[in-house]
Write a structure and sequence with these properties.
The protein contains 25 helices and five strands. The protein has about 425 residues and is mainly alpha-helical. Among the domains are: about 130 residues, Alpha Horseshoe (Leucine-rich Repeat Variant); about 160 residues.
């Protein structure tokens, strides 16, 4: 009760923050944080005129765990009022303070700061004031840090398919084998793979070659793709890698190109168990993905920044490593970003999200469990719609066709039609 009588005296101090010594202002904020559970204190934090003085203290660099920011941010989080949060975020530089504290090594302030960020992602005005495009690195690093808390299930490499030389994801335990990564039908001498799309990754060259029963000269086999495509309707074609060396392998013209391809083939990613995350990290991660999707719809620049900073590398495995609603939010974000950027499509295809949605996965210890999580995600119509659109974007890339050639056509078609079966039987609006 005594504190409630002194609250009006803190208001002029916070409003005159520019003319007061920092120690006086810090003492006022410290008192406010100590009594943050009082209704009068929370009403003061909602005052727009006092917001600048409050944020001036919170923004002051202080590495101590007992700094005033800890009590204030915890109180704002417990207040559960997005209007108060929006008022504070309206102060210039306030978003940098909350982003910084969300990456603090002190859990006492890191957790409420991340909770505030998650609550801000659920409010359109707060999302705008977080300056997501300029602070995209903060966003992607926060998503990656939460995902990395999960236990490792699989570590996959993006290895080249020996027939197409297109990146294919596979578990490292499988890749250690010397057995070629070929589909079962490839052992037949009459096997003709489906031609990859011209939208394949640019550092791989795909040229069509005519099938002949007699040996042809080297000059005939070295025809260009332009001349071959003009006669495609007259003779059968199969797609192979060109140029080839004496042993039938890929041959590079320049040493720097070979080094670049070697670096591309040496990429790997980790599938982590998102179901092992705690309730609070899972809630924060869900809010980040759910709030990021509508902002990516409105800003192609944000999509480009997320792609450039590698944010999707942490999101792609969540499609199979998490359960709904987290997996559904990851699927929605990938679908939205793929509709904005061709580079995102290449990233999602290279990480094998398309085959995962069709339950086409190389055998591993956790393969059955991951497929079960995908089935659980696709139980809702909205998730099936997102998956169907994602596969539609990926269908223009040869890498997806090369990945699906590793599995039986019946299985692929069965799961593909399963995505559209309910949508086709759903009555039209107004029927």
């Amino acid at each position: 009760m005594a504190f409630d009588r002194y609250v009006p005296q803190l208001v002029p101090l916070l409003r005159a923050h520019a003319a007061l010594p920092f120690d006086v202002l810090r003492a006022a904020v410290k008192l406010l944080g100590a009594m943050a559970h009082r209704a009068s204190a929370r009403k003061l934090m909602h005052d727009p005129a006092s917001a600048e003085g409050l944020m001036a203290v919170l923004a002051h660099p202080d590495s101590g765990e007992a700094r005033p920011a800890t009590a204030i941010i915890t109180a704002i989080d417990e207040l559960n009022d997005v209007n108060t949060l929006a008022t504070l975020l309206a102060v210039p530089g306030a978003c940098d303070t909350f982003w910084r504290e969300s990456h603090s090594r002190h859990l006492a302030i890191q957790r409420p700061a991340r909770s505030l960020i998650a609550r801000a992602f659920g409010h359109a005005v707060c999302r705008k004031r977080l300056r997501l495009v300029e602070r995209c690195k903060r966003v992607t690093s926060l998503i990656a840090s939460i995902v990395d808390e999960g236990a490792e299930l699989e570590r996959c490499e993006i290895a080249p398919h020996p027939l197409y030389c297109i990146p294919l994801p596979r578990p490292l335990a499988t890749s250690a084998s010397h057995t070629p990564l070929l589909p079962p039908r490839a052992t037949s001498p009459h096997y003709i793979p489906s031609p990859p799309s011209l939208g394949a990754s640019p550092h791989y060259t795909l040229l069509p070659h005519t099938l002949t029963t007699t040996s042809t000269s080297a000059s005939a086999s070295a025809s260009t793709s332009a001349s071959a495509s003009t006669s495609a309707s007259a003779s059968p074609y199969r797609y192979e890698i060109a140029p080839l060396d004496e042993e039938g392998g890929w041959k590079d013209h320049a040493p720097e190109a070979a080094a670049a391809d070697e670096d591309d083939d040496d990429r790997s990613f980790v599938v982590r168990d998102a179901t092992a995350l705690g309730a609070e990290p899972a809630r924060v991660l869900l809010a980040l993905l759910s709030g990021l999707a509508p902002e990516c719809v409105a800003s192609a620049q944000l999509v480009e920044a997320v792609q450039r900073l590698g944010g999707l590398a942490s999101v792609c495995p969540l499609v199979c490593a998490a359960r709904p609603p987290l997996s559904s939010a990851a699927l929605r974000l990938l679908r939205v970003c793929m509709g904005q950027s061709e580079k995102v499509v290449e990233t999602v295809v290279a990480q094998g999200v398309g085959p995962w949605l069709l339950e086409c996965r190389e055998h591993s210890e956790h393969a059955d469990e991951l497929d079960a999580r995908v089935r659980a995600t696709l139980l809702t119509q909205s998730a099936r719609d997102d998956a169907a659109q994602l596969l539609g974007y990926a269908a223009h890339h040869g890498a997806l066709h090369a990945q699906l050639d590793l599995y039986e056509d019946d299985d692929v078609l069965h799961h593909a039609f399963g995505l559209v079966r309910v949508a086709a039987t759903r009555p039209a609006p107004g029927a």
